[in-house]
Amino acid sequence: MSAEVHVSAVVVVADRRALVVRKHGASVFQQPGGKPDPGESALDAAVREVAEETGIRADPRSFVSLGRFTDAAANEPGHVVVADAYLLRVDEVFAEASAEIAELRWLAEDEVEHTPLAPLSRNHLIRHAWA
């Protein structure tokens, strides 16, 4: 049985583009997010991780719950990621890679097919950007 990794993940959308990030040492992109700190709610972790990884600071009330999704963990072999996912629509498209982020991209819907994405992103989350 695979070990579970619990995270918060955020589909950030601006101008019909979805923000994806690639962490240092990773070969695939994924939604901004990460593991909650001890005692931290999934939403609080989502707000914090987006700010830390991209510089986007948003009101927690702007995050819309998409539900909980499970898939193979991209960066932890043999693990399953369980993500509490949120949608965040922002007006401004400025973001910069920080913390453990090596690169970020704003993807249009027609770029998704040719972008290396983590299973959770490709199979569950990215489509919510254009729903």
TrEMBL record:
One of its GO terms (molecular function) is hydrolase activity. Keywords: Hydrolase. InterPro entries: Nudix_hydrolase, NUDIX_hydrolase-like_dom_sf, NUDIX_hydrolase_CS, NUDIX_hydrolase_dom. Coiled coil: none annotated. Transmembrane segments: none annotated. It comes from the Bacteria. This is 8-oxo-dGTP pyrophosphatase MutT (NUDIX family). Residues 2-130 form the Nudix hydrolase domain. Pfam families: NUDIX. Belongs to the Nudix hydrolase family.
